């Protein structure tokens, strides 16, 4: 089969050369005859050349977006051809973090699938010089061409192409460098459009193992996240967009941001850090959401500070289902100049009205003052899981001691347990005390010094009762002021 196929392929290229000659000659024909001629030539070629070709161009349509099919084929061929193709090209990925191999231009590789042989070639056509354009364009149009015998048409259309896409996408996901996106406006000249998100590689090292938290709660969150990731069919069946909202609340330094990084590392997701105060209005907010990709966590940190979302809507707008106008009115408060994102805009954002474009997104809010948020914002269905991150417990301390000092027990642990029961200290403060004190000191001495410093810090901390009384007085005073 292979020899015969090679012969046919040779014949194919001879015919292609003839066609090229023909194309040159044809220019001198009157145009109405030209249409007939092209139809008959393709029919003639079809009779003697039993191969079918499919072309996958790198850019389609308005050339704004790289074709997904092309990217998947590139990854598929890159992985499967690297030991077969004679010429490969190596490029660093966009962040320069790793080398990606792919077939060089004009290279051909064969692929066998369920007993069927196909040929892939990579090629490019040079673009004609453009008139002066605002956006610089690349000089070439690249494409992959798949050639196969027409008797295999069914298997190629039915299963092979699907196999290539699935495999290519999986390889692409495995290869990718995860990213941390932020919403600042900048132009990306190479993608010919204004990008709403800019990104850097995401390299936060926090994991659930390094997070100080009670083991049961930690396990519960991990299970919840993993279940979410595997629930594509489930969400489709119950008719909900495949997304889940998390509200993380608690005092500063209790690990909210660290937990988000741990979530991203656990699920292998990208992170979109949405700075709400930099978003001009609801339309801009929608655009941002549309531009997010799946397998990502969209984070809104310190939501109580980002906007005046402090439950005013409740007192001014009579019901949660108040008219759109009511909602708009309330949120465009004092900061008109800075951001005109309204509460209803934000609610729509969360409800995923605009997330028709694929699923698998987590939305995470963090706040220090959960009581200040509008209940509509954090009701179940919007923020499905509420997680309180609080002062460090002894169990939390044990995690930190293992991480920072590599010790699971020590004579000082007992007094630390006692102190922790009555004092309030944040995990951030505990962590700070457990940081290595001096370089070169012997490990045992260092452990001792760190734990002593923690004991000292605990002694200086406010006791739980004192802190609670102070907080209550503060709230009381605030209420009197408002009154
Ligand atoms: N639960 C925790 N487990 C491990 N480390 C923690 C934890 N909480 C805080 N830390 C340490 O303290 C530092 C600050 O924590 P983080 O930024 O996560 O706090 P936060 O809750 O987001 O605070 P803020 O409300 O001010 O944003 C982290 O770099 C981390 O090292
Ligand atoms: Mg934080």
TrEMBL record:
AAA+ ATPase domain boundaries: 242-393
SMART domains, per database record: AAA
Single Gene Ontology BP term? response to stress
Q: Which UniProt keywords apply?
A: ATP-binding, Magnesium, Nucleotide-binding
Kindly indicate whether the keyword Nucleotide-binding belongs to this entry.
yes
Q: Extract the GO molecular function terms from the UniProt entry.
A: ATP binding; ATP hydrolysis activity
Q: Which cofactor does it need?
A: Mg(2+)
Positions of the UniProt region annotated as Disordered: 312-336
Pfam families per record:
AAA (PF00004), AAA_assoc (PF14363), AAA_lid_At3g28540 (PF25568)
The family this protein is said to belong to: Belongs to the AAA ATPase family. BCS1 subfamily.
Q: What is this protein called?
A: AAA-ATPase ASD, mitochondrial
List the source organism.
Elaeis guineensis var. tenera
Which gene is the coding source of this polypeptide chain? LOC105033529
């Amino acid at each position: 089969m292979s020899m015969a196929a090679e012969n046919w392929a040779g014949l194919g290229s001879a015919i292609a050369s003839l066609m090229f000659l023909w194309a040159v000659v044809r220019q001198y024909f009157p145009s109405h005859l030209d249409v007939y001629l092209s139809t008959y030539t393709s029919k003639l070629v079809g009779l003697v050349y039993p191969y079918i070709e499919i072309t996958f161009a790198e850019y389609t349509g308005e050339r704004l977006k790289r074709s997904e099919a092309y990217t998947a084929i590139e990854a598929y061929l890159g992985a499967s051809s690297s030991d077969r193709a004679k010429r490969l090209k190596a490029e660093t990925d966009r962040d320069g973090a790793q080398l990606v191999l792919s077939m060089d231009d004009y290279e051909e590789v064969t692929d066998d699938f369920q007993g069927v042989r196909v040929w892939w070639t990579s090629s490019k056509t040079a673009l004609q010089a453009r008139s002066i354009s605002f956006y610089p364009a690349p000089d070439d149009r690249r494409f992959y061409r798949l050639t196969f015998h027409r008797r295999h048409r069914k298997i190629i259309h039915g299963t092979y192409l699907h196999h290539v896409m699935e495999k290519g996408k999986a390889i692409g996901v495995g290869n990718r460098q995860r990213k941390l996106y932020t919403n600042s406006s900048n132009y990306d000249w190479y993608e010919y459009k204004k990008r709403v998100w800019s990104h850097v590689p995401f390299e936060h090292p926090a994991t659930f193992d390094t997070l100080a938290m009670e083991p049961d709660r930690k396990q519960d969150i991990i299970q919840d996240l993993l279940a979410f990731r595997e629930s594509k069919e489930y969400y489709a069946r119950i008719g909900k967009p495949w997304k889940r909202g998390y509200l993380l609340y608690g005092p500063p330094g209790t690990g909210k941001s660290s937990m988000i990084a741990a979530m991203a590392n656990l699920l292998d997701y990208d992170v979109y850090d949405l700075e709400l105060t930099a978003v001009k209005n609801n339309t801009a907010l929608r655009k941002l959401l549309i531009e997010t990709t799946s397998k990502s966590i969209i984070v809104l940190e310190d939501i109580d500070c980002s906007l005046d979302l402090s439950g005013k809507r409740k007192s001014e707008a009579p019901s949660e289902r108040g008219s759109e106008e009511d909602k708009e009115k309330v949120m465009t408060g004092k900061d008109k100049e800075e951001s005109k994102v309204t509460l209803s805009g934000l609610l729509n954002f969360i409800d995923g009205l605009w997330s028709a474009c694929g699923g698998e997104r987590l939305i995470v809010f963090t706040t220090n003052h959960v009581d200040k948020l509008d209940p509509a914002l954090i009701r179940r269905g919007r923020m499905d899981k509420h997680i309180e991150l609080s002062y460090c417990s002894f169990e939390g301390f044990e995690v930190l001691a293992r991480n920072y000092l590599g010790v699971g027990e020590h004579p000082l642990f007992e007094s630390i347990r006692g102190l922790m029961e009555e004092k309030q200290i944040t995990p951030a403060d505990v962590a700070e005390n457990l940081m290595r004190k001096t370089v070169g000191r012997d490990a045992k001495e260092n452990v001792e010094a760190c734990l002593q410093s923690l004991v000292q810090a605990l002694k200086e901390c406010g006791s739980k009762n004192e802190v609670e009384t102070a907080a209550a007085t503060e709230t009381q005073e605030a209420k009197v002021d408002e009154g």
